[in-house]
């Protein structure tokens, strides 16, 4: 079949798609992925421990331990491709290890193979039931396929011809599409269309559209839908764990990170900021007071320097630093070494001048780790001149950041800073913040002792 055939087809494709109807039942597909596989696992594991006669307490511990292991391992993720064979090794391991650890307590030697076998059999039964429901038009979700080239049309036609996937496709394109798939709008309307059709998945075919998908997806976050990306070279294998990959009729799909753009992630990051900033402020308060007194007695003016900075999406705040240049000294974008006092030069080199910003962090105006906040006039200028610079303002500005620990501070490349900052935002995890803080401490100590910053 040629590409032209894919776009137009040899004839009309049997299209059973109907526009989603808003009703109380519409919430079922969105809730189902959250409870289906945990519920299947609980039923299977409970049946196993009851048949083996495992005592109540160790049985409960076993069920909870396996559920946690499977969940952390990604086994409860709602997949498009429902092949159980891809999941068997991880399911067996997740069920067998807790059983082996509890063996001295339970004395049930059969729990190791029985738990693993029960889990796999339950998944096979669950998949069979789900596929049967999909073929009958039950529990069907809407997927938005962004890009109407050969790949996008192929994915859409495959979903129409194989109802067992349980997905009704809608194509988003900037031009007419000669295919039996509805086109309700354009890629730039992604957020609006996800809400309108209550889509639970989005598939991005970057090679099939000239739209700025990076900007569109970033502007639409956090989307209430899982977002998948078709690799640029789908014929080649990617070094991504199989349990994280998905597939539509031979076309691999790589999931984009989602949790780090949620309210739960923001709450975790805020808790990290409050705990760390509060502890540092208590521990470093004597040092901060001494430094402020030395700066004040040095005759350079008030000990603290205040400046308005852009600190987040549509937000700005007065950022506080220890003064490193005499009052009245004109300041451009970067402070010239000749304008700083000897003490100011040392403070800037060690970044001790930024310790008062711990107060900004506690007030919620900044984060410990994040893109360094910039003055509004320069932020506007860089946003006009540097691609993706504005995207770095999606999160709170930070006292230190991924760009800073790579030496990108002071008079360094703004495009590279924006690239590092946006990479940090896209790949944020609590552990990444720990890494940045640890590297910052190492750089500060090295500088304070007269060593290199890297």
Explain this structure.
The chain is an alpha/beta fold and 454 residues long. The chain folds into three domains: 25-135, no CATH class; 139-259, Rossmann fold, CATH 3.40.50.720; 263-448, no CATH class. The chain has 14 helices and ten strands. β1 (141-146), α6 and β2 form a beta-alpha-beta unit.
Q: What's this model, at a glance?
A:
The chain is an alpha/beta fold and 454 residues long.
Characteristic terms for this protein:
Rossmann fold, 3 domains, 14 helices, 6-stranded mixed beta sheet, 454 residues
Residue-averaged pLDDT: 83
Proportion in helices = 40-55%
Q: What is the β-strand count?
A: 10
Q: In sequence order, what are the helices and strands, one letter per element?
A: HHHHHEHEHEHEEEHEEHHEHEHH
- The secondary structure category is alpha/beta
The global form is flat
Largest sheet: 6 strands, mixed
- Proportion of residues in β-strands: 5-15%
Adjacency order of strands in the biggest sheet: 2-1-3-4-6-5
Distance between the ends:
56 Å
Count of helical stretches: 14
- Domains, number: 3
InterPro entries: Bact_transf
Keywords: Membrane, Transmembrane, Transmembrane helix
Domain Bacterial sugar transferase: 269-445
Family: Belongs to the bacterial sugar transferase family.
How are the SSEs placed, and which strands pair?
Layout: H1 3-8, H2 27-52, H3 56-72, H4 88-106, H5 111-135, E1 141-146, H6 150-161, E2 167-172, H7 190-197, E3 201-204, H8 213-220, E4 226-229, E5 246-248, E6 251-255, H9 263-297, E7 304-312, E8 315-322, H10 342-350, H11 357-362, E9 367-369, H12 376-385, E10 398-400, H13 414-426, H14 430-448
Parallel strand pairs: 1-2, 1-3, 3-4, 9-10
Antiparallel strand pairs: 4-6, 5-6, 7-8
Helix pairs in contact: 2-3, 2-5, 3-4, 4-5
Family: Belongs to the bacterial sugar transferase family.
Organism: Saccharopolyspora gregorii
Transmembrane segments: 59-76, 111-130, 274-299
């Amino acid at each position: 079949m040629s590409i032209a055939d894919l776009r137009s087809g040899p004839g009309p494709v049997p299209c059973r798609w109907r526009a989603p109807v808003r009703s109380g039942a519409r919430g079922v597909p969105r809730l189902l992925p959250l409870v289906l596989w945990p519920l299947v696992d609980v039923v299977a594991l409970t049946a196993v421990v009851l048949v083996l006669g495992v005592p109540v307490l160790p049985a409960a511990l076993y069920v909870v331990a396996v559920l946690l292991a499977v969940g952390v391992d990604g086994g409860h993720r709602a997949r498009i491709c429902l092949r159980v064979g891809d999941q068997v090794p991880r399911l067996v391991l997740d069920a067998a290890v807790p059983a082996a650890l509890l063996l001295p307590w339970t004395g049930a030697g059969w729990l190791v193979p029985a738990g693993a076998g029960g889990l796999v059999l339950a998944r096979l039964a669950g998949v069979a039931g789900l596929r049967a429901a999909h073929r009958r038009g039950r529990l069907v979700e809407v997927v938005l396929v962004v890009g109407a080239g050969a790949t996008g049309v192929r994915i859409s036609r495959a979903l129409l011809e194989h109802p067992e996937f349980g997905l009704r496709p809608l194509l988003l394109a900037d031009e007419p599409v000669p295919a039996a798939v509805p086109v309700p709008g354009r890629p730039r309307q992604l957020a609006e269309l996800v809400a309108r059709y209550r889509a639970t998945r989005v598939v991005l075919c970057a090679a099939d559209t000239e739209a700025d998908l990076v900007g569109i997806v970033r502007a639409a976050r956090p989307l209430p839908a899982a977002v998948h990306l078709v690799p640029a070279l789908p014929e080649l294998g990617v070094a991504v764990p199989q349990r994280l990959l998905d597939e539509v009729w031979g076309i691999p799909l790589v999931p984009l990170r989602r949790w780090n753009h949620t309210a739960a992630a923001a709450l975790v990051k805020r808790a990290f900021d409050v705990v760390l900033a509060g502890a540092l402020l208590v521990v470093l308060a004597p040092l901060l007071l001494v430094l402020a007194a030395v700066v004040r007695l040095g005759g350079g003016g008030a000990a603290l320097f205040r400046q308005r900075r852009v600190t987040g999406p549509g937000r700005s705040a007065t950022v506080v630093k220890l003064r490193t240049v005499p009052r009245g000294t004109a300041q451009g974008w970067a402070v010239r070494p000749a304008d700083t006092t000897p003490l100011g030069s040392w403070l800037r080199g060690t970044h001790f001048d930024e310790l008062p910003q711990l107060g900004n962090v506690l007030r919620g105006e900044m984060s410990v780790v994040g893109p360094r906040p910039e003055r509004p006039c320069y932020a506007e200028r860089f946003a006009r001149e540097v691609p993706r610079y504005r995207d770095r303002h999606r999160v709170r500005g930070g006292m230190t950041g991924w760009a800073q620990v790579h030496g990108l501070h002071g008079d360094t490349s703004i495009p590279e800073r924006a690239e590092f900052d946006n990479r940090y935002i896209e790949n944020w995890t609590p552990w990444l913040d720990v890494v940045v803080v640890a590297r910052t401490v190492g750089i500060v100590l090295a500088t304070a002792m007269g060593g290199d910053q890297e």
